[in-house]
């Protein structure tokens, strides 16, 4: 059976934690930053986790994660 290709766009956006959860970057930090508070921007710099409902779809894109 041949190896499955990884979706490279997904590989650049997601990574796996040690316990198998999927880490992601938070949105809303690309532009129009002047009206957002420093606290909001600081919290957006932290990574988030993919919701349980979306994990199956992300795992399909990353078969060897």
Q: Could you explain how this protein is built, in words?
A:
- By secondary structure, the protein is an alpha+beta fold.
- It has one domain: Factor Xa Inhibitor.
- 37% of the residues lie in helices and 14% in strands.
- A three-stranded antiparallel beta sheet has the order 1-2-3.
- A hairpin with a 5-residue loop joins strand 1 and strand 2.
Task: Name some characteristics of this structure.
single chain; 3 helices; 65 residues; Factor Xa Inhibitor; alpha+beta; 14% strand; 37% helix; three-stranded antiparallel sheet
Summarize the structure.
With 65 residues, this protein is α+β, with helices and mostly antiparallel strands. It has helices at residues 8-13, 38-45, 52-61; strands spanning 15-16, 22-25, 47-49.
